[in-house]
Specification:
The protein is mainly alpha-helical. The protein has 15 helices and three strands. Helices cover about 70% and strands about 5% of the residues.
Length: about 400
């Protein structure tokens, strides 16, 4: 990968006005070339120190925004627009690197622009940043470069990512309320066990007699909070670190992903989301002219669920042997009969791309409707859950008082 340096430049535009600025480039000659592509006549180009003093960029670990799918969707749409307007690829990448709001993406675009300037293709340059650009994006752009329809491929990428972003936002909105309520319930329980139950325990100690079983359980839990709470915090942090490192490994996904689809409330939503993602990505890849075996491999990797990915591996083997796509899918419980039938019809009619697009549109709407239903259903359930937990603890605390009243009588 080319290491970029920072250069301060001064140039004169077509109106005769002197323009100053800074840019990143691999060398002084590359910087001079970039100044010319900006429509300026270079006056001076000098290397400057970067990331020192007050110009140093401050990054707090865990708080960096990163590059989101929405950033990539906007970038693809802008790149397609500029390409259709007749701008050269170098000029397009230069404008994008200067105008994008995401600083991390701007740096990567500058590096890609320098890579392309050396003569390699856009897809090859992006492939060096495979952790940023998804495989589907790289392969669609490669297909567009090969077939001479880069603008169409970029629009396909943008449309695909925009739909994916919309689906993700839908899922987040459905999960936001129960997550917040659950956190509040856990905090309330920990607070009561840590601060309130010990007060009642001291009060009950002077009464004599045996405490009711629910109250005894609360007292034992309260005493255990001295070591249990730090253990839970340390365990939670350790699990979080382990999960971030291992959540994408096949060993973990093979266990966790099937469980996601079997969850009592969210399982159907996760299933519909996986089918919508599979259908949309597959339709986009076929429409861009990517070979079907390569498309199936990429669609499997980007499906987001191991169950779907393993099913598509079987489909790949079937297609490699000259058989149909629908056959192996019909044996997988994750794919409803309607989806399999529509794919079979699409294969027979030579309209697989259109059928997959219809399936994706249908399941996009299903995900939206299911998320709205879950939000309406979960709200009263979570309120009832908090009422039962907190109310049960309060009743357990007051049960000894009822026993005392009986002794007084």
């Amino acid at each position: 990968m080319v290491t970029n340096l920072a250069f301060a430049y001064k140039g004169r535009n077509t109106a005769g006005k002197v323009v100053k600025g800074r840019l990143d480039a691999a060398s002084e000659n590359a910087a001079m070339s970039r100044v010319r592509t900006m429509g300026l006549t270079p006056i001076s180009v000098a290397e400057v120190a970067v990331g020192t003093g007050f110009n140093a960029e401050i990054k707090i670990p865990g708080f960096s925004k990163g590059i989101t799918l929405k950033d990539l969707a906007v970038m693809s749409r802008q790149m397609a627009t500029m390409t259709s307007a007749g701008l050269s690829l170098l000029r397009t990448l230069n404008i994008l690197s200067e105008q994008t709001e995401n600083k991390e993406l701007a740096k990567i675009l500058t590096s890609i622009r320098n890579e392309v300037e050396t003569g390699i293709s856009l897809s090859e340059a992006m492939e060096k940043y495979s952790t940023v650009f998804p495989p589907i994006m790289i392969n669609l752009i490669r297909a567009g470069e090969t077939g001479g329809f880069l603008e169409s491929s970029l629009n396909s990428v943008a449309g695909n990512f925009e739909s994916e972003t919309k689906l993700r936002d839908t899922i987040k909105s459905a999960l936001a309320y129960p997550t917040i309520v659950l956190i509040m319930a856990v905090v309330a329980v920990i607070g009561m066990l840590t601060f309130i139950v010990p007060v009642f325990e001291k009060m009950f100690a002077g009464f004599g007699g045996e405490l009711p079983l629910p109250t005894q359980v609360l007292v034992v839990l309260s005493r255990a909070m001295v070591w249990l709470l730090p253990l839970l915090i340390v365990g939670g942090i350790a699990f979080s670190v382990w999960w971030r490192k291992n959540k994408n490994t096949e060993q973990v996904r093979r266990v966790v992903d099937p469980l996601k689809l079997k969850l009592p409330v969210f399982g159907p939503l996760m299933t519909k989301l996986a089918i919508a993602r599979f259908s949309r990505n597959f339709s986009t890849m076929i429409g861009a002219g990517v070979p079907i075996l390569q498309s199936l491999n990429i669609v499997g990797e980007t499906s987001g669920n191991w169950v779907v990915e393993s099913a598509l591996r079987k489909v790949q083997e079937s297609v490699r042997q000259g058989k149909s796509i629908a056959g192996p899918l019909s044996l997988e419980p994750v794919f409803p009969a309607m989806v399999v039938q529509m794919i079979a019809v699409g294969e027979d009619a030579g309209a697989l791309q259109q059928m997959l697009g219809k399936i994706a549109d249908f399941y996009d709407q299903e995900v939206q409707a299911t998320a709205e239903q879950l939000t309406a259903l979960i709200e009263p359930l979570m309120i009832a859950f908090i009422g039962v937990v907190v109310g049960g603890m309060i009743i357990a605390l007051y049960m000894p008082m009822f026993t005392i009243f009986e002794y007084i009588k």
